[in-house]
Please model this.
Amino acid sequence: MSTPVQQTTNLHTVGAGFWVRSSTPGAESDPSRLQANQINPEIFESEAEVGRAQLEEIQRAASSKSGDLVIILLGGRGAQAMYRLIGQMAETPGLDTLLGRLHVFTQDALAPLRMSNGLSFVRDFERLLGDAFFRKVKSFTPIRTDTDNLEAELIRYTEKLESLGGIDLFFLGLGPESGGASHLAYIKPGSGATSRDIAGVIPISPSILEHHIKKFKVGGSTVTEADEAECRAATHIMTLGPAAILGARRIVHSIVDADTAPAKRESYRRVLDTELSEDSARRAAQLDANPGLWLRLHTNLRSLVLPDVMAV
Model:
């Protein structure tokens, strides 16, 4: 699919959370109508090679269209090598033309959490990409959770994304959940996200909170005791939803940290091997129980992994 994210204030509540739902006729409400695709993993020998391939994806997307480019950054380990590479190149004029065309968005955030917290994605992006990158890109729009009105912030964020014509390139990872399930962005199992939901606010789960803190520490972030205490007090997650993922023109998916998060091996294998039902209700239940399966419904996806991800 290549339908851009649509402007909307159509909210629906699921338990203690809510989703911003597309109200456009073009948003497919029945996921069983979407083709179930196979994912063919591309195995790279190093995280640095994955990072170079990811940068090439941005360059390729830029060469395939005129005007600006909208990209969604991936938090955690999956794109850190690319960010370091871009950060180094941003100190030179070599990427200036490309960076000047980029509208950069984040895909998720814990709430509430200060932007300056060492466990916030924004602080990690600043650490890896560097000041020059943020000076040179056309715009940077994080999901802000240091606000008293999460609903208004989520609507502001989705409306800006829509105003730029939707997502050209969406970088995604895969987070492990119990029983071999997975979360995608921060769409967790049982969150009630549907194919029409652009973004949402959902209650935090202990597994996601622990995964978040661990991946930041392993990735080299400086985390103070105060930062961790504030992070552990977060109650919700703001995240892009399935409609944003399905509407992206290109998805680049990566897993480079199975050594420190070995549960990702089983989670990824389940995404690859699950037979998606043709029945509408059954497929919807599969997607809600294992959100990583939304990757299987995108028609323009590339999956980059290291050899240990495929180890039995």
